[in-house]
Design brief:
- GO terms for molecular function: electron-transferring-flavoprotein dehydrogenase activity; flavin adenine dinucleotide binding.
- This is FAD/NAD(P)-binding domain-containing protein.
- It holds the Pfam family Pyr_redox_2.
- The chain has about 500 residues and is of the alpha/beta class.
- About 30% of the residues lie in helices and about 20% in strands.
- The protein is globular and about 80 Å long.
- It is built from eleven helices and 23 strands.
- The chain folds into two domains: about 230 residues, 3-Layer(bba) Sandwich (FAD/NAD(P)-binding domain), CATH 3.50.50.60; about 120 residues, 3-Layer(bba) Sandwich (FAD/NAD(P)-binding domain).
- The protein binds flavin-adenine dinucleotide.
């Protein structure tokens, strides 16, 4: 079966990897990449084995959690969870590690599912899981801190985190930043706590359900299209109109015209009205026509047309990169749009302007890389960052020559959920659409279980290899002792 679009990565530069899945077997670079790829510090740590490496991860979403969980797998000496190499049994070598994940939210949020969560309380409840309820994170090597990164000092390798209880100063050996993009509602939740978020989605749901004069969604980018389609699927009695300022949907995505045209066709097949090439220039104050009815709004478009509707969802994509707000010299670390410049190994670009650049990594939407920003790419990058950091640790602790993996260039590709249907385009598969495409790309929950299972969030972290053996030995001993006791009693 082909891989889901979420997990799909461009494999053009990974000729030796199997095609069945898109995340997994890494392409190793030429082995030792030279001194600048190593972090500073003592080479062999086995003289002080009890000192864990401290890894600070900023952002606990697709990229951050993938980095944290794969890193602990590696450090446990086990096969890591994203490995699809059947011959891979892990290194069998344990490395002490302490991972700290910082996030202002109190849990993992399945952001891809936002268009569905806005129209369904059942899915909203499923898509936000508190970190304390994620089985995979309940291991001594992982600590989560609810807070926001304020500053990073790359020279001293310390970070300042703001929490509800005050500032925390955290030192680290390696840092992975995975803080994504700051997205505005409705593209992302406003709330940082699960309970508040559920109240937020419930309010939107009530507004949609009561929309006797229909719902207008403004913005024909991926988010606006998906929100319109999910409302239409879950509340077919509510008329939905999508308004977009350009004459082509998805006008800011570098995808083939046929992709946008097919998406438009599917919207029309589902009786979603579209108004293209018109900007909304005014939205009236809510007008209460009768006491029993939901208030209504009048929208004035740049074409002079007016629309009367019960509920307006402004899904014009607005986002800002997060890194410039906490990095010390963003003008050299980030590009002109605020994305962190990374090497193919995911380290910050080492041009001499950033101290310890080789110990700082960026993964996911926060980083500058080719291709459309996607969760699959974010998980893949988190995995690679973890793998490369682990290689450095192995080199320091066991003296093994590191073999680093590198990201391949990615061409634009996307899967777009359209209610019961979907349209997808990736260079390797071309354009496809329909119910099967939706099943393949998103299944029935906008890809929630695909991501949840891929990251193994619901599975308790297995023990490190040695610990497992020790535990087995202890169990054997206990059993032997019990047998002895029984013999004595007999
Ligand atoms: C509505 C919508 C639909 C989408 N659909 C798809 C899809 O179908 N398929 C697909 O592959 N991709 C899709 N995407 C894109 C995908 O969601 C992103 O590419 C993905 O979320 C990136 O993951 P990330 O871990 O890099 O960042 P994010 O998921 O954005 O996570 C960043 C994390 O960092 C935290 N953070 C932010 N600031 C700070 C700070 N100062 N300190 C500490 N932590 C911080 C945030 O709270 C968040 O938890 C969609 C996006 C949206 C908005």
């Amino acid at each position: 079966m082909a891989a889901s679009s979420i997990l799909r990565t461009d494999r053009r530069r990974q000729p030796n990897t199997p095609n069945s899945r898109s995340v997994g077997v890494p392409r190793t670079s030429a082995g030792q990449l030279g001194a600048s790829y190593y972090s500073s510090g003592p080479l062999y740590r086995f003289e002080e084995p009890q000192t864990p490496f401290k890894v600070l991860i900023l952002g606990g979403s697709y990229a951050g959690l993938s980095a944290a969980l794969n890193l602990v797998d590696f450090c446990h000496g086990r096969k890591n969870r994203f490995s699809i190499d059947e011959a891979d049994n892990g290194t069998g070598k344990v490395i002490p590690v302490q991972v700290t994940i910082v996030d202002p939210r109190d849990g993992f949020y399945h952001l891809i599912g936002q268009p569905l969560a806005l129209s369904s309380q059942k899915f909203a409840e499923a898509f936000w899981t508190k970190y304390t309820d994620l089985a995979a994170l309940q291991t001594p090597e992982i600590r989560t801190v609810q807070g926001s990164i304020e500053t990073v000092d790359c020279a001293s390798k310390t970070a300042t985190i703001t929490t509800a209880k005050g500032a925390i100063h955290e030192s680290y050996d390696y840092l992975i930043t995975a803080t994504g993009l700051q997205r505005e509602y409705p593209s992302a939740p406003r709330s940082l706590k699960r309970e508040k978020y559920l109240a937020e989605t419930a309010e939107n749901l009530a507004n949609v359900r009561d929309a006797s004069k229909g719902v207008v969604v403004i913005g024909g980018g991926a988010v606006g299209i998906e929100i319109a389609a999910e409302i239409n699927m879950l509340h077919p009695q509510i008329p939905v109109t999508l308004v977009h300022s350009r004459t082509r949907l998805l006008s800011s995505e570098s995808l083939p015209d046929e992709f946008a045209a097919r998406a438009l066709e599917i919207l029309h097949e589902n009786k979603i009205s579209t108004i293209l090439g018109a900007r909304v220039i005014d939205i009236s104050e809510p007008q209460q026509i009768t006491p029993d009815e939901h208030p209504q709004y009048t929208l004035t478009l740049s074409t002079g047309q007016t629309l009367v509707t019960s509920h307006v969802i402004n899904a014009v994509s607005r986002f800002t990169p997060t890194a410039p707000s906490y990095l010390p010299n963003p003008e050299s670390i980030c590009d002109d749009q605020g994305y962190i410049r990374i090497e193919p190994t995911l380290q910050f670009v080492d041009d001499g302007s950033v101290p310890n650049a080789a110990d700082h990594y960026a993964a996911g939407d926060v980083a500058r890389w080719t291709g459309i920003k996607r969760a699959g790419a974010a998980m893949h990058q988190g995995h690679y960052a973890a793998r490369n950091i682990h290689q450095k640790m192995m080199s320091r602790v066991y003296g093994t020559p590191p073999e680093f993996v590198e990201l391949a260039e990615v061409e634009p590709g996307m899967g777009l959920a359209l209610g019961k249907s979907a349209v997808g385009y990736f260079p390797s598969m071309g354009l496809q659409s329909g119910e099967e495409t939706r099943e393949l790309f998103f299944q029935g929950d906008l890809g929630f279980m695909i991501c949840y299972k891929w990251m193994q969030l619901g599975t308790p972290m297995p023990k490190a290899v040695g610990v497992e053996k020790e535990a087995e030995k202890m169990i054997e001993k206990v059993v032997e002792t019990e047998v002895e006791v029984e013999k004595v009693q007999i």
